[in-house]
TrEMBL record:
SUPFAM superfamilies noted in UniProt: Zn2/Cys6 DNA-binding domain (SSF57701)
A Pfam family this chain is assigned to: Zn_clus
Taxonomic source organism: Arthrobotrys flagrans
PANTHER family registered for this protein in UniProt: GLUCOSE TRANSPORT TRANSCRIPTION REGULATOR RGT1-RELATED-RELATED, MALTOSE FERMENTATION REGULATORY PROTEIN MAL13-RELATED
Protein name per the record: Zn(2)-C6 fungal-type domain-containing protein
Length: 500
């Protein structure tokens, strides 16, 4: 069958092709007759030959340009290459590092401000130091709940999220997972602090494990790695180890996760002269001594993780529990320390007492009328009132500076007190130790609001339990009050001191 009724030659004159061989019309014009040509399938036929040639030429041009650029980079001087961390200026780092030095060095005495600033200014390609600085700036903003923590953008400033993004970007510029150094360890640690304060608990836990893994790589779990103990480098390693130990105990007890670090035999040494560093380290030593009570078997038993069911199986006898509680009740004079340090030690001591009590009630007989307070089922009420009485001496700023750690400790105190209020027998409801206990519970709730704000999961969890337990609210304004916006610091303290 013919594919067309006319060929190209005949189409010119618009006459029907006769299909002759040869076609007269085509022959006259010296054209090939297409009458018998098979018609091609309709639709796209693929790129033209000229198009393919243009693409090939473009690829060759791009390849030549890449070679030329690489050759230019190879022969260029270092001064002509833009530093890869230029997204945040050095003065922005220094601004928040100064805040760390003034307000948080007593909490994390593991970074030398002057040394870090010198490293930043000396070498713009020291990505490890810049990553540490970025993580420390982010942790400082988050811990102190500065406006830069919650805001998406700050005019004339940087947010904590921007510092976090920069820290993670800088770490990708060198193989940080393959490097065991104190800078990389501390970067992971401060990232942990940021995410804990941002209520991203899983991310915080992952970064804490990363920091601990780096500590193992540096052999910080081995006593031999601290010899000789008197050198500045060794003392820094000892402080870093105990910072990790304290953070791991706090995080794992609250979140019921396994612990890896065990106490070492060395504590930080204090300077011989009466300097500020000596006072700072004195508080740090006192804090580590409180955490030594929380060995791994004891901590695991708090959440039912231990398969051993009695106190004597773990080495905690009745007399031991009584002695430890009595020793924790008597704190040494700490009037020469900074307020923030005194707060940290005071709250941590009461937190440890609460943990010991929770262990006691699950392993020993307790009673509302016990002559030994260590075995009183009402002890959390006394602990809460003592804590609030201690807070009367401190400004709210010195309480809020401890961020997430302060939140979880206050929550544990309030949660234990709520257990007592819910479970105490009606016959014991008039016990003198319970006098003002409900007011104390609401004062602790108010402190949680002041430290963590209304979005704090600890505050929300406590309020949920209080609502389910039908605990009345004496001051409804506390339920919606943004302490940082509608109430100044002095008012916050006064509202707590009404009870004591």
């Amino acid at each position: 069958m013919r594919s067309s009724w006319r060929c190209d030659g005949c189409a010119i004159r618009r006459v029907r092709c006769n299909g002759g061989s040869p076609c007269q019309e085509c022959q006259k014009r010296s054209l090939a007759c297409t009458f018998l040509r098979v018609q091609r399938k309709r639709g796209p036929k693929g790129p033209r030959v000229s198009t393919s040639e243009k693409i090939k030429q473009m690829q060759e041009d791009l390849y030549s340009a890449m070679l030329a650029s690489a050759d230019a980079d190879e022969h260029s001087s270092p001064e002509t290459i833009a530093p890869q961390h230029a997204e945040i200026a050095a003065e922005d780092y220094i601004k928040y590092l100064e805040i760390f030095k003034e307000r948080l060095y007593s909490v994390w005495p593991v970074v030398d401000y002057r040394d870090l600033v010198q490293r930043l200014l000396a070498d713009e390609t020291d990505y490890e130091s810049y990553a540490l600085a970025a993580s420390l700036c982010a942790a400082t903003i988050a811990q102190l709940r500065l406006p830069e923590h919650e805001a998406q953008d700050i005019v004339g400033g940087l947010t904590s999220s921007q510092f976090i993004k920069e820290a993670n970007r800088l770490r990708q510029l060198f193989e940080y997972r393959e490097i065991f150094s104190t800078a990389s360890l501390l970067t992971s640690f401060f990232l942990h602090i940021f995410y804990a304060n941002a209520e991203k608990i899983r991310s915080a836990g992952s970064l804490l494990r990363e920091a601990i893994g780096c500590a193992f790589g540096l052999r910080m779990h081995e006593s031999e790695s601290y010899l000789p103990t008197s050198t500045p480098e060794t003392q820094l390693k000892i402080r870093i180890f105990w910072i990790l130990f304290i953070s791991e105990r706090t995080y794992c007890i609250q979140n019921d996760t396994p612990m890896m670090l065990q106490p070492i035999e060395y504590l930080p040494e204090m300077a011989e002269d009466d300097t500020q560093d000596r006072k700072l380290l004195s508080a740090f030593v006192s804090l580590t001594q409180l955490f030594v009570h929380l060995d791994s078997e004891f901590a695991k038993s708090l959440n039912g993780s231990s398969g051993k069911g009695c106190g004597s199986c773990l080495g905690y006898h009745r007399d031991d529990m009584s002695t430890v509680q009595r020793d924790l009740c008597v704190g040494k004079e700490e009037g020469d320390l900074k307020e923030s340090q005194q707060v940290d030690i005071a709250v941590t001591r009461q937190w440890v007492r609460t943990l010991l009590w929770q262990y006691t009630v699950s392993h020993f007989p307790v009673s509302c009328n016990s002559e030994d307070p260590a075995f009183s089922s009402l002890l959390p009420a006394q602990i809460a009132k003592e804590t609030l009485s201690t807070f009367n001496k401190f400004s709210p700023g010195s309480i809020k500076v401890h961020g997430y750690g302060m939140e979880l400790k206050l929550f544990r105190l309030a949660d234990a007190l709520l257990d007592v209020l819910v479970c105490v027998p009606p016959a014991s409801s008039g016990h003198s130790m319970l006098f003002g206990a409900r007011d104390a519970l609401h004062a602790l709730e108010h402190l949680l609001l002041m430290v963590g704000g209304t979005v704090s999961p600890f505050l929300q969890g406590l309020r949920g339990r209080m609502a389910r337990s039908n605990i009345p609210v004496p001051w409804a304004r506390w339920l919606t009050l943004e302490a940082s916006e509608t109430e100044d610091d002095s008012d916050s303290t006064d509202s707590i001191s009404r009870f004591y």
